[in-house]
Structure formats: structure tokens, C-alpha cells
Amino acid sequence: MSDGQRLDSAPVSTGKGSVFAAWEQFVQGEDHVRGVRPEVLLSWHRCREQYRVDPHLTEAPLAAAHSDHTLEQDVVLTELGGLAASVAREVEGRNGIVTVADATGRILATWGDQATVARAADANLATWSCWSESTAGTNGMGTALETHGPVLIRGAEHWCQAFHGWACAGIAVRDVVTRDPIAVLNISCWRTPLPEITGRWLSHAVSQTQGALKGRARDSAGELIAAFAQAKGRGPAVAAIDTAGKVVIADERAGLLMGVPAEAPAVEPAIRWHTSLPDLIRVAEYASGRAAKDPDWVGSTQIYTHLGDEPTPVTVRPVFFSGQLAGHLIMFGNSDDGQPCPSAAPMMMSAMSAAKMSMRRIVAVRGDRMVLLRLPEVSFAEADGNDVWLSTDQGRLRASSAGLDKLTHELAEAGFLRVHRRYVVNLSRIREIERGFKGELFLVMDSRGGDVVPVSRRNTPAVREALGL
């Protein structure tokens, strides 16, 4: 089913019926309400518990006075503007307006029926106002920036009661490499149903815009491959990665270190290699931020790879294409070049701590045998009564020592953290973070089964601090 079909087939029951009753209950603190679409309920949870948006807000706040846009973002915004102007002619007779906003939710332009434009201004649904979910609650633009695909918000599904008279549909244009939002296109109608083909309009606009982004991503990959060819042979191992930390090409040694095929160029963003090295992804994010401010920046740090117990030194060199960052060359091995990257990986330990960690062992039991586990092999520990079970690269094993408190104390300085009365996790083995309906956190580990570990409310602040959230 296409994005457009999914949007057009969404249920229509909004307004002063069951959705409004559920909204009233939720605003008053109720968690379990009926008759609300899951994606809307998730948004309400974010608005109430994470962003703390006042549901009785009567207008959106003004956006920040200044927001930097890259050349690529400006191109996307200009193209969306042309598409929005053509769609506006279709909704003028339906009390409709079309808006384009940037990745922060700041409206840059508005088109449509002039009477509706004036009415929208009463709620600051106008240029230079901010409609991110964190400032204006659940709405077409802000919620589209938080999710993937088209978003439909009608009537009482809006978090702020003052906006219940609107029906809105938005979709974000996202970077094809990082998947970060670049802009958002939105259609809003005042007390009038959205046109049935709204979803197809939005999806067509995004696919048309992202076609150009994919072309640019291919060109950037070509530049990375050319830089790789020049650097190959100058050191023990070299690879080229994009701005999201995915591998475009690697030589034989780098391929072994990163766990990806060697000499296999991946030009298309959708088929680039994932290394499953959390440190490398964090290094890429840090390096991209530094290179955006200083194109001449070169950095160095240490990361854990798929070979060896100790971290490997790496040097990071940004690669640019037509003035925009294309990605980075990663050179493995010692180098005197580059500035240190102390904050490239918030969870990365110092070299001394890492070496200490690699030498330490956890003793587990398998039948009548004792198994000596290196700490990086352990994903998390789980208490079951007085027993402690370890999720490891060798499967689920029982720890030789009893009691999770003792294990927590022993591993406190080795990158492990108590996240729940029953769980201690290896911070370097966290792959993803999920948020529950009540705002609780769940850690998706990089174990074979993709185990999910809950975080208790009591331990949430410590987890947030440790992960830099």
C-alpha cells in the first residue's frame, strides 16, 4: 500500500465525539484511552510527558529568529515551494491552505484561500511561527517531522484544543542518507474535510523532491570512492563512509575490521553496508558536526572493531562534494594527524579503561564447565531470583556469582549500568532506544535476538545522562 493510500484510508471519526472524550481524559492524566489511533496516542504521550506542551495553548509560538540552512536544504525548500503553490490552487475552494516549513517546524511560506490564511493567522499558523511537536503539540507538520511517512491529524486529534477546528496532513522530506528531516509540506483545512487525494499529492511532492536528493547522494558516493582510491595503500587499512556512518567502500583489511565486504562499492544509499559498530556511527556523527563548521578539520580517536580485544586507532578525514559534506575517509592505525575526538563517542571509554575492560573477565557456568567471558562479549545481565543470567555472544549463560548487586558494583567502571532492578546493561551494546506509551524507555540490544531491556523510571535520568540524551 502506498503512502498516499494509507493517508486517504485513515478513519474519519474526530471532533466532539469519542476522540474529544479521549483527549479530555488524556489531558487529565489518564493513560489508557479508547478510540484514538496509535500514532496519535504516541504523539500525545510525547506532548504531555516529554515536551510538556500546554493543551490549552491558543497559538503557536514564534520561531527562533535565525536558522541556518545548507545549500541542499535551500534547494529542497525552493522545490517544495513550487509544488505547494500548485497544490494550493486545488484547496482554495475547501477553506484550505498549504504551508512549507523547515526541519525545525518554522513555517517559511503559506499559500491558499485568503480568508483561511487570515483565520490561520489567529493561531499563528503563519510564516515565522514554529509548529514543531515540541512547541505546538500534535499537528500535521510537527508530527510528520517526528515520524516517517504521511501524517493525518484531524479535529480533536490535535493536542491543543484551540486547533481542533483544523484538519491537517503533512509529510517530511528526509535526507536519503541520514534520514534526518529537511523540510515538511502540509495541507490544512478549516472545518472542512481534506480532499481525498491529499495523500497522493503529498507523496508525489516528496518523491519528486527526493529524486534529486538520491541523485546527489550517488554523486557524493562517487566522490567518496575517488577519495578512497587515492588514499588506498597509504596505510594499513582505509574505508569511506557516508555521513550516517554506513560504508560506501572498504579495502580488504578495513572490511575485516568493520565486518563488511571488501572492494564492493555501494553507491545507492539503500544498499550501503552497516558495520554494527556503534563507536563508528558516533564518530561519524561527531566528525560530520565538526566538518560542517571547519572543512579543514581532521580527527583521531579509538574504536572497537570486529577484530581484537583492544580499541583500534582511527583517523577521520572529511570528504566534500560541490561544497557539501559527502562523508569521511576512515584510516585505521596510528597517525600523528588530526585533533583528538574526546566527544566523538559519549560512551567510549579512555584507552586505559578500555584496556582494563578487555583484560577483565566474567565467569559464567555452562553445565560442569566454567566459561571465561570478556566484558565486550556480554550484552546484559538479568536477575532471576538470586541467580544472574548473562546474555552473551555465546548464548544465555548463568553467572558464577549470585546477586545482581554484586555484579553491578564490579562492573560500574567498565561501561555497564544498572537500568532496572533486574537488569544491568553493557552501554556499548545498545543498538536502539524505544519510547513506550507512558514515556518509559526500552533499550534494544545488539544481541543476536535483538533483546529489549526495560528502563525503570528511577533509573531513567542516569540512562539519559550516560547515553547523552
TrEMBL record:
Record has Cytoplasm as a keyword: no
Pfam families: LytTR
The entry's keywords: DNA-binding
InterPro entries noted in UniProt: GAF-like_dom_sf, LytR-like, LytTR_DNA-bd_dom
Residue intervals of the HTH LytTR-type domain: 362-469
Listed GO MF terms: DNA binding
Entry-linked PANTHER family: STAGE 0 SPORULATION PROTEIN A HOMOLOG, TRANSCRIPTIONAL REGULATOR-RELATED
Protein name, as recorded: DNA-binding protein
Species per Swiss-Prot/TrEMBL record: Pseudonocardia zijingensis
